[in-house]
Amino acid sequence: MAGETGPIADTVSLSISMVIAGLFAISVYNSLEIYISIYRTFRRRQGLYFWSAICANTGIPILSVSSLLRFFALAPAGPMSIVIDIGWWMMVTGQSLMVYSRLHLVIGDPRKLRWLLCMVIGMFLFVQVPVGILFIANNYYRGPNMETPITTVFDGTEKTQLVVLSLQEVILSGLYVYEWANMRKQIEITKGRKVQTMFHELVTLFVVVVALDISLIIIQFANLFEIQVTYKPLVYSIKLKVETFVLNNLVELVSSGGNGPELPRGLMTMDRAVHDDDPWRSRRTPSLGARGGNDSELPVPKKTVSI
C-alpha cells in the first residue's frame, strides 16, 4: 500500500507510471477546456452556479498535480496529502453544489431544496473531512513497513466515502430526470419540442454519472489505489463537462421565450417569497418548478458553448 502512505516510483513499472501521468495530463487538459467554456458562457460571473463550477474545476488540476508530485517523490508526501485533500474537497463538493444550484428550476418545494443542501454540506463535514484527516495522518505517521492501523481504517472508510458520494451524485442528477418527466408535458405548452430534447439530455447526464461512478467504485474495490487516484480527476472532469453543458442548456431553455399560450399559474405551485429568501439560489433565473411560463424581464444568457 505504498500509494496510500507515500511515493510509488519504486513499486510500479514504467508502463504503469506512463499511464498514470497520461491520465493526469488528460484531466488537466479537460480542466483547461472547461475554464474556457465557463468564462465564454457565463455573462454574469457571480452566484452559486458560477463559483461552484469554478471551485469544482479548480480542484481537478490541484488534485492531479499534487498526486503526481507525491506519487513520484517530487514533493514531500505529508504536505502533498494536505493539498490532495483540498483538491478532492473542491472537486467533489463543488460539483455537487453546482448540480444542486440549478435544481430550483425543476423542484418547486423549498423544503426539498433545503434538505438537499443539508445533504451536500453534511456529506462534506461528516464524510469527506474525516476521511481526509485519516489520509493526512496516514502520510505523516508511517510505520517501518509503510503500514499502520490508520492505513487499514483509511482503506475501509475511503471505500465507504466513494460509495456514499456516488449515491449523492446519483440522487442529485436523478432528481432532474424525475422532476422533468413529471412536468414536461405541461411545459411543452410554452416551450415546444425543445422540452423533449432537454429530457433526453438529462437522461444522458444521469446515465453518464451512474456509469462513471460504477467504474470508479469497481476500481476502488479492486484495491488498485494508484489507478483509482489517477482515474478520479478524469472521471470528475468528464462529468463536469457533461453537467455544465446540460445545465447551461436547461438555463437557456428556461430563460428563452415560449412559443405558445402561457400556462395557468395553478399548474405548478411554489411560494415565490421563498425564492427571494433563499440565499443559495440565483435571483435572476426563472423557475419552471414555480411557474410554467417564462419571465420576459430576465436576461437571456449567452448561447452555451459546447465543451
From TrEMBL:
<feature type="transmembrane region" description="Helical">
    <location>
        <begin position="86"/>
        <end position="103"/>
    </location>
</feature>
<protein>
    <recommendedName>
        <fullName>DUF7703 domain-containing protein</fullName>
    </recommendedName>
</protein>
<dbReference type="Pfam" id="PF24802">
    <property type="entry name" value="DUF7703"/>
</dbReference>
<feature type="transmembrane region" description="Helical">
    <location>
        <begin position="202"/>
        <end position="222"/>
    </location>
</feature>
<feature type="transmembrane region" description="Helical">
    <location>
        <begin position="115"/>
        <end position="141"/>
    </location>
</feature>
<feature type="transmembrane region" description="Helical">
    <location>
        <begin position="161"/>
        <end position="181"/>
    </location>
</feature>
<keyword id="KW-0472">Membrane</keyword>
<feature type="transmembrane region" description="Helical">
    <location>
        <begin position="12"/>
        <end position="36"/>
    </location>
</feature>
<feature type="region of interest" description="Disordered">
    <location>
        <begin position="274"/>
        <end position="307"/>
    </location>
</feature>
<keyword id="KW-1133">Transmembrane helix</keyword>
<keyword id="KW-0812">Transmembrane</keyword>
<feature type="domain" description="DUF7703">
    <location>
        <begin position="11"/>
        <end position="253"/>
    </location>
</feature>
<feature type="transmembrane region" description="Helical">
    <location>
        <begin position="48"/>
        <end position="74"/>
    </location>
</feature>
<dbReference type="InterPro" id="IPR056120">
    <property type="entry name" value="DUF7703"/>
</dbReference>
